[in-house]
Amino acid sequence: MGVTGPPGPVMDRDEVDRALARLGAEHEAIETSLLALQDHAGRRLLEGAELTGVTKERWASAEASITLLWAYFDAYTGALRGAREIRSRRRWSSREDLVELTELLRGESVTVAGSIAGSVAGPVSGPVSGADEASTPQVTNKLSQSFSLSTLVDRMNELYASSLDMVVTADAVWSALPARIDLLAAELQRTRRLAHSVGVRPGEHPAGDDLERITRTLTSLREQVVSDPLAFWVRAQGSSAPGGGRPDTTVYDREARALEDVRREIDAVLTVRQDAEQRLVRLRDVLSRADRTLAEARTARGEVLAKIAATEVPVVSGPPTALQEQLATAAEYRRHAQWHRLSPLLESLEQKAEDELLRARESLSAVTQPLAVRAELRGRLDAYKAKVARHGLAEDPFLIERYDAARRMLWSAPCDLRVAEQAVLRYQQAAAELLTAPRVPEQGGPEDRRGEQ
To answer: pTM of the prediction?
Structure first.
């Protein structure tokens, strides 16, 4: 839609012909634009929708603008037809014809009835910002108004731009959001069925409550989008083109993320359903190993108390009955397909079972520590005896005496570890002295040297 040139002095015939050609092309362009607007899918949807909020207000104004557009166009068409008739009277237009044509083509010669021109009030509220309000045409309610063809085109351009913006914006939101909401709702229904199959229900599992909330939100969101699409439009900064912006998908995106979180939770429950038996078998095995280790620790404690004297031996506790009860509960959940309850219980039990096995092993280590100390002293005593034998001192009476004393302490029950350790140390010291002392046979044997000491 273009704009005619400004008024001027009396036009000559060539200027008139050029103006008429330009106005004819402009008339065709305007008509094409108006017919396209009339056939626009968004306009047809707006006409048939039950609108609310901002969209209802803007569409009431847009409908009046479109009505006024056609009235202006009819007036424009009539003026152009009249000018063409004057020009077609004679091949060489007279001065009177040229004056009349100049006034018609450049002057305020097009009159629009006040009831039509005043049918659009301005400004009206827009969907996004005051920029829309400022661009909405304002029409004064007079008995009639006169326009030049140039001014009339400007008015039609303003009305067309505001009406097209409203129609394009609504159509863009309707084309984008409802379909996406429907797809998400279909995915939501599939997730709900899957959740129900694994026992994830409202009031029994947080994910079930989330599914109910998402369902309510999507239902409300779709109703709002259908009745008030302009409330879900974000205008592009600095854009004046019709439909410049994008649909506001904030609420949709939030619910899509929430549904994805629920799907992950359901997947975790499904994984539990698939692996539940194996995990229960592993749990029973771990707890059984812990029980056997504790039983071994209790047996070892009795042995230690019988064989080791003057030693504090820690008490060994029995297997925790709470874990066995929880394991039985987990098996019950599996039998009744209560996967949503089984999932967190299995995770907790697996950690507790590992902790229990570690505790049992630590208890066994603590109980058998005295036996380990005795074994280490026995090994040390025998190692020094072998070393002494390699140096030919195995028959030394003094070493034999100290070895026998240490051995009696280590192989008797109950064994006093502190006394036995001192006996082993005395044997080690005696062996070390003999191994490091110079050997002088002519001055007597080892017994003589010890006697001298």
So the answer is: 0.56
